[in-house]
């Protein structure tokens, strides 16, 4: 793969990233990161599900999440969770060990029963198979697509991201990628990014699956889809 050696790598300290990857409800790193679709604030899944059982507003910004079924406004943020596991050493292993003990002490088998089944019944869109203990297969329940992410050539203001090759589930939406990029580039929330594919600005709701169709992505060849990003004009 080509590698641009002239680019200065972005150096990040974990304490600078912490505000973006720590759950404000439990003060721990996100576990099963879950985002409120109304305001895009993220929490651990179990923390926000429990919180919204008795309340209707986002704990961070107080936006009303929903009148009667707030859980319908939550989405698992797989991209974010992947970032957290990549950034925080041994978090994944610790969480796996914790889950294993949780299941064992209840005489259950990991991979068959999830601990918070009751909370999930009205929570279908978050349902996914329980993670197995094989790290390499953690997200394999979902088809993946390869992306190559570069700054738009006419936006000299923007740095390149260090890791420009990304694999993500096909249902990842442009909005999630934009959030990931904003975090990687340490952009303030006031600066929005546009993501482009083949010169076309993507709607935030566009899933990567759609780009596979547009660009005639070949799963066997797996040549990454080129995406560009640029600052949205203010
Ligand atoms: Zn939490
Ligand atoms: Zn919020």
From TrEMBL:
Gene3D superfamilies: Phosphatidylinositol 3-kinase Catalytic Subunit, Chain A, domain 1, Zinc/RING finger domain, C3HC4 (zinc finger). It holds the Pfam family zf-C3HC4_2. Keywords: Metal-binding, Zinc, Zinc-finger. Residues 23-62 form the RING-type domain. The keyword Transport does not apply. InterPro entries: Znf_RING (IPR001841), Znf_RING/FYVE/PHD (IPR013083), Znf_RING_CS (IPR017907). This is Polycomb group RING finger protein 1-like isoform X1.
